Amino acid sequence: MFAYRIDRRSGVATYVQLVQQTKQALRLGLLEPGDKLPTAREVVEATAINPNTVLKAYRELEREGLVEARRGLGTFVTRSLGSAPADSPLRGELSRWTERARAAGLERGDVEALFAAVLEEQFRSEGDSA
Fold it and tell me: Which InterPro entries does UniProt cross-reference here (predicted)?
């Protein structure tokens, strides 16, 4: 079953972290249409966050058309995103690059900033705002 991880030091709102992690799982094929998301109670028990935070995230995902709440049954994925499977050879290349970056003394924030800058450069011409 899919599990959320909350980073309380990130400065990112908890519900946004849930939305982002769900979208990432959809992009990587870890969640697929028909899959059931953890119940709010399961997320609360695993992460010690407020149930309303979970419900807010799930409502946002539903508003975006990614999930559907079925009364008495749970919340289910309705569509996937992207096409970057978790076992892609590109993931291995990125993992090795990240290892080299860490070995060179870069911290997580440095790597994130560098990666974001390169993404911006590469996708600017395509008009991608993601």
Answer: Tscrpt_reg_HTH_GntR, WH-like_DNA-bd_sf, WH_DNA-bd_sf
pLDDT in tens, 44-64: 999 999 999 999 999 999 999
Instruction: Give the residue from 120, 91, 121, 117 showing the smallest Cα distance to 106.
Output: 117
68-113 pLDDT per residue, tens: 999 999 999 999 887 766 677 887 899 999 999 999 999 988 998 9
Using CA atoms, how far apart are residues 4 and 19, in angstroms rounded to an integer?
A: 10
Residues 23 and 69 in one domain: yes
Q: How many domains does the chain have?
A: 2
Say whether 25 sits in a helix, a strand or coil: helix
Nearest CA among 66, 70, 6, 71 for reference residue 33: 66
